[in-house]
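Morning F.,

Quick status update on the modeling queue. The single chain you submitted on Monday has been processed. Sequence for confirmation:
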Amino acid sequence: MSQNIPSQSSSLGDWLAYLERIHPKTIDMGLTRVEQVARQIGLLEPFSNIILVAGTNGKGTTARCLEALLLAQGYSVGTYASPHLIRYNERVRINGQEVADQYHVDAFCEIEQGRGDTSLSYFEYGTLGGLAIFKRFAVDYVVLEVGLGGRFDATNIVTPIASVITTIDLDHKEYLGDTRELVGYEKAGIFRTGVPAIVGERNIPHTVTDYGQAISADMVLSGQDFRFIPHEATFEWHYQGLMYQFVNPGIPAQNAATALTVLAKLNLLPELDIISNVLANLKVEGRFQQLSAAPLVYTDVAHNPESARYLAYKLADYANKGFKIHALVAMLADKDKANAIAALTDVVDTWSVACLSGPRGESSGVIAQMLGNVEQHVAGEYSDVTSALKHILPSMDDKTLLIIFGSFFTVAEAIEYWQ
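Structure tokens below.
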């Protein structure tokens, strides 16, 4: 494979282009290859306390909440997330900050030299790269976000001090199965014998608890061992005699409650004033992110039915205040578009649809047809998100909220338009 292998002096862009072309499959589930390379370059030896976070939705916000609560106590923290919105560097954070390109390049050089003839996918390479960077910085804690599923995801090669499942719903059905029980079983694959396994899902499939009991995981279950009670402006969190009430944060309060339970189980829960301060200031890019106040514009990565339902809940608050909701949607072809859209039909007044570029992008015509089938008014079809925004924004009034959603790619294009 002497096909222009980048070097330590190559750019990060050159390395990423190389990683995109060296493996025959974009998604290649299984741990054998990635575990073998990790062992060869010393990444399976314990170097930090690792918290492994899986879930259909809420992984990113739960991970960011854990990161912030640990940082507020003075610990050093490495956080791994995917996919990124704008820059690859978003995937690896040290103490809340992205690291410079050269750290990624150095990590990729180490992996390339150590992998021998073993082929790795883009995601596997990136996961090992993140672990190599965390080892280099010798952080106290690593918050590792699972990419897809759990059991056969590249992140599952590590030995965690806690395993977390945020929510369980249908997504990536071609890989994880078409029932919540099958999806839950795949996600429960990150559990370990005797290791805390915290489940934030409020309607837990039996396959999750069956697997946890079979391997004697130390399960902490939502609705049984801890409780999350939402109110209009606050939420309550109950766990082992503790009962705290906090103002709703800028992330789903359910995910904040899950993060608090993880830290309480690990005896890492901060003081009450620290928790309150962290939650009050917590924001995650692309999660109901405000792009403009006048006109009022938000963007959200919601791309499956569960995340669309939460988005509908957020938008309903504005609808109840008299705002008209205009949705601009662009999605990937392999997502459950019909049910994601159905979750929002009661709250959205007018729709615009845009195409997403790339081999997985869905055409605006397909989405417009879906909306027509459920008698939703489509104001316009556009070749891309940028073209749609150029047309929509000049005609908006101060009683309309524009929500741009449907994919990480959709949000990235919206954010880049504003920047």
